[in-house]
Amino acid sequence: GYVPVVCCLAADAQGNIFNINADTLAAELAANLDAEKLLLLTDVDGILLEKADPTTRLSRLTLAQLRELLASGRLAEGMLPKADAILRLLAHGQTTVHIINGCRRNALLQEIFTDEGSGTMISPT
After folding, report:
1. Nearest-CA neighbor of 77 among 38, 97, 48?
2. Residues 82, 23: contact at Cβ < 8 Å?
3. Domains with residue ranges and CATH for the chain
4. Looking at the predicted structure, is the pLDDT value of residue 2 above 90?
5. Rounded CA separation 61/82 (Å)
6. Containing H/E element for 109?
7. Rounded Cα distance, 122 and 61, in Å
């Protein structure tokens, strides 16, 4: 397989440059490529119920649970665009999304190859 690396800048017909949200772009690419998994690397350990408390990390969520978290107002700041992008992506099919801390050594391996993971896995069901 391939790992696409894409710049989040785009231009319109008049040559104006736009900065596209990286999470939105990644989710749209995943949807159009029929990706089985989307890995969103960030500087936090997945979705935390309490921003400053890593022990509140949610290891797994379904699409319905993510919608509930959004509706309750428990997600804020940088997690909002991620959640919106994930909602749109999971509405398209059976992609699984992982939010992991890209700054942590072996976080990707731990997320993919252990039951508890290192971040948050969001699945359609």
Report:
1. 48
2. yes
3. 22-123 (3.40.1160.10)
4. no
5. 14
6. helix 107-113
7. 5
